[in-house]
Structure formats: C-alpha cells, structure tokens
Amino acid sequence: MGAIERKLYKVLRNVGVRKNYISKAKSIDDLFLDEFDRKLLRFYFENEFKVRLSERDELKLTTLNEVNGFLRCTK
To answer: For a tag on the chain, would you pick the N or C end, based on fewer CB atoms within 10 A?
Structure first.
C-alpha cells in the first residue's frame, strides 16, 4: 500500500467508515455515507491531501480507484 492509499484509508476511517466497508467497496456509495459524512469526507480530503475538490470533481469521483487516480494526478 502506497502513501496515498494509506492517507486515503486514514481519511475514510476518520469519517467513520468501517474497515470492512473500505476493503469491500467498489464505489463511494458502498461506504454508506450520508450527506453530512460526504461533506466531512470532502473536508478531510482537502486538508489531508492539500487539494481543492470542486462539486463537479466530487460528482465525477464515484469509485475509490477514481479518487486514488485524482489524488495521484494532483501531486
């Protein structure tokens, strides 16, 4: 697991996502986040990775692989 994956895992755990949900998730919807959790997740992403996530970006990023790819491209 690389540095980005570790940070991504940490952010998801900070939001309260269960470990087994992270490993089994094929999409962001599989993480069972409500509206508040999604806003909190966006806040943590922006602070942990020092990136800005537009609403458009947020809507495009539907899988954890897409989030990982986005984060790799912004570094």
So the answer is: N
* pLDDT of the residue at 75: 66
Q: Along the chain (75 residues), what's the average pLDDT of each consecutive run of 10 residues? A: 90 92 90 92 92 89 91 82
What CATH code is assigned to 3-74?
1.10.1200.10
DSSP-derived secondary structure letter, 30: G
Six-digit token pair at 26?
């094929």
For residue 8, what are the contacts with CB-CB under 8 A and spacing of at least 6? 64, 67, 68, 71
49-52: list long-range contacts, CB under 8 Å, 24+ apart.
49/4, 49/7, 49/74, 49/75
User: In the chain, count of helices (H) and strands (E)?
Assistant: 5, 0
The predicted structure's pLDDT at residue 1: 74
